[in-house]
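forwarding from the other thread:

> can someone predict this with glutamine?

sure thing
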Amino acid sequence: MRLNEYTAHELLIKLKSQEISAEAIVLACFEQIENLDKDLNAFITLTKDTSLDKAKELDKTFSKDQWGKPLFGIPLGIKDTISTKGIRTTCGSKMLEDYIPPYDATVVEFIKTFGMVPLGKMNMDEFAMGSSTESSYFGPTLNPWSLDRVPGGSSGGSAAAVAADETIMALGTDTGGSIRCPASFCSVVGLKPTYGLVSRYGLIAYANSLEQIGPITKDVYDAALLLTTIAGYDPKDSTSVDTLEEDYTKYLQDDISSIKIGVPQEFLSEGIEGTDESVIKSVWAAIHKLEDLGASYIELTLPSLKYSLPTYYVIAMSEASSNLARYDGVRYGYRIEKEKDKSMDQSFSESRRIGFGAEVRRRIMLGTYALSAGYYDMYYLKALKVRTLIKNDFERAFKESDVLIGPTMPYLPFKIGEKIDDPLAMYLADIYTVSINIAGVPAISIPCGFKNGLPIGLQIIGDFFKEGQILQVAYSFEQNTAYHKQKPELS
Ligand code: GLN
């Protein structure tokens, strides 16, 4: 086995015994990237020289006392919406093609302080708007399981690179499913933390009331390690919650006899139109497996869930239209060249028309419409009220059960080009993921099956700040199944 094929927790044992060096792991990752990434296109920017320098420096300073730092010497990829000092951060957009942030996001500071080695910046849907990574200005990322299919999105580069062993782990962001969707489509683990657990300082905003940064990894153990590294109070983010620091690996126990699972009827029994039969079957099989392992389950109902997609898209687009107003070619972003006889307004609108892709422009217009006088009450304000109903549904559900279980995605990874020209069809892909962001609770997607060689993901949802509990259930499932061990065939 080559070093890039291991999980972080396996590599940490080898690093600790000094059997291998951090530099050797980084070299193995770059070898894989050089072999595969021309096709996969998971990276937008690579930082080979600085990554190798950093790894060498870590190898020199390596000593026993580094072991308070859980991921010392481990490489990772960073989604290109997270600011990295001195390294171009594009958000997958022409608008920010040449943007080099003058500061690091707090999560990047954390991973650097804790001795991790960034390898580069990961491809994504433009401004994180999408579920397929096809809207990137830098071209689509391909799914390592089937190169004619999408890897999911918007953190498709992060998930594809982890699945293809180009990196050991990666950071993604999740506004309405963007960590869990690509994790499901690429058969890796993706965790969206509780809103406020991980700092958003330095995350380029799409819809700030919904999004969180989180881990995309090869297994549940690694997700717990990376969450431990990035979670924590940050005075620079006013929505950051001052919780106790936790070591999430302590929840990785293979005993779930005290766990009561809630199965929302809206997710499985009633089924959502368009959900693939194989997805429903695999998720039920997973629930029965967890029952065999000692958990109990009840069916329950989340009646407001049927409003989650329109609620999400009204809120997300409204926030996006406001957040993206700063890209006008003057304060930030791409600016048209020949502007001699153009008015300021013409220059603004042309820079925005050329700098943004079609989906981003569509959302800015719809969001502006929903926020405009006369329509504000009818759309935005109404969506906020329904948001409270959805949140209340989750609160009620967590009085009756510890975790909720359902599918992550309604179907298997779809073909490249299949939905990109049909925005509504693309939005429908988020049917099982967006309600979690509306409520602000945590959720994880883990591999739970395959059909015709294509992955299926299981979603486990927890109550606020109960990441420990979802990790525990996920770990127990993983320890007793082998889906996470299957790898795509890549040369
Ligand atoms: N697919 C959803 C959207 O386009 C979610 C994206 C995300 O989580 N960043 O808004």
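Residues 128-131, 154, 174-178, 206, 316, 430 surround glutamine (CB under 6 Å). thats all i got for now
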